[in-house]
Amino acid sequence: MSQTSLPRRLLLGPGPSNVHPRVRAAMAQPMLGHMDPRFLEILDEVQASLRRLFGTQNPMTLPLSGTGSAGMEACFVNLLEAGDRIVIGVAGVFGERMCEVATRIGAQVTRVETPPGTILSDAAMAEAIERVSPRVVAFVHAETSTGVCQPVEAIARTARDAGAFVVLDCVTSLGGLPLAVDRWGIDATYSATQKCLSCPPGLSPATFSPRAVERVGERTTPVQSWYLDLDLLGGYVGNERRYHHTAPVSAIFGLAETLRMVEEEGMEIRTKRHAECGHALVEGLLPLGFTPLVEAAHRLPMLVAVSLPDSIRRSGEAALRRRLLDSYGIEVGGGLGSLAGSIWRIGLMGENARLTSVESLLHVLRRELT
Ligand SMILES: Cc1ncc(COP(=O)(O)O)c(C=O)c1O
Q: What is the dihedral angle through the alpha carbons of 297, 303, 305, 309, rounded to the nearest 10 degrees?
């Protein structure tokens, strides 16, 4: 095998984001056993910090082993049994992925769609919830494929009032926007470490309400995934400390360090930092001919989706992204699904939500385009 020699990148795509040296150093610490009392102390601290970040008292709050998609699967395999009804809000690729996961479980999926770049309508979700009377209602808080920030409270309230469990995807919002899982009435939510937490990919912070955990205990069929079965996972992350699978120790060291940094900074300042950077980026892109896909009120700060000027579409947007990467070491994301070729997705997540990142990108774009 050749020696690893990696280029330096400024990662301004939809994730992963750049990892702070403090996190890299934390991950390089000596290995501990996953039953070592010192490691278990760190795991406890991580769980407590995640509760604060999610805005929840849920005892079942944990870093799942796996990326954000593992978090999505964990919510669905635990809460759904074959034949159960679920209403899913589809505002982009990740709502679409929810439908795929729920269908594989054998659930009856009702989709409520909205055009790319727009939010789900409260009324359309309410109509579907009333018509279907689902066991679960699921939607995405920060739709990374379109840059939309979905208002949560009204849909969650309607779902709860109808007796449904509410699943929310917070992959791109955790650590960049304030979350209030308990106040919003969310039963299960998951995130990922490689977005606004600026850790390497590999863990999915997740939290489950006591009624969601109870529901898992009342299932008539076993959870289809042994690895993601909450009952079994609870044996390790709860008080019993029973072996289930080997915890990814180094990744949890990294997460612990990131969470320390988030708490040192405070979510108020961190939220403001993301908002300022998102705003500055849009302001700088407008004169270059880019137009935001999403109206200002529902625009994500940490993932800015912009329609491309005709000149870039004509000359090939992928070629320009490649030039940014090769010549300047800057990564930006292209469009996904139906938006491929027509938008860019520019991430300012966690460590990358800095005006220096914004200015670096704008500088090279001005140089390339004018
Ligand atoms: C909103 C959203 N949900 C789910 C996922 C899936 O996460 P992962 O790629 O970490 O499995 C992503 C990844 O970008 C995402 O942005």
A: 120
Distance CA 172, CA 189 (A): 12
Strand, helix or coil at 369? helix
Q: What are the start and end residues of each CATH 3.90.1150.10 domain in the chain?
A: 10-14+266-369
Report which ligand 1 atom has the smallest distance to the Cα of 192.
Answer: 10
pLDDT single digits (tens) 285-322: 999 999 999 999 999 999 999 999 999 998 899 999 99
* Pocket, ligand 1, Cβ cutoff 6 A: 14-15, 67-69, 72, 94, 140, 144, 169, 171-172, 192, 201
CA of 145 to the centre of ligand 1 (A): 9
**Nearest CA residue ID for atom 7, ligand 1:** 68
pTM of the model: 0.98
What are the pLDDT digits (tens) for 264-284?
999 999 999 999 999 999 999
> What residues pair up with 165 in beta bridges, in sequence order?
136
Radius of gyration of the chain (CA): 21
Angle, CA of 53, 165 and 104, to the nearest 5°: 100
- What's CA 112's distance to the chain center, in Å? 21
- CA-nearest of 347, 168, 356, 352 to 270 is 352
Q: Which CATH number applies to 10-14+266-369?
A: 3.90.1150.10
- 3-state secondary structure (DSSP) of residue 272: helix
Which of 64, 96, 144, 196 should be mutated for ligand 1, with most atoms under 8 A from CB? 144
Q: What CATH number labels 21-263?
A: 3.40.640.10
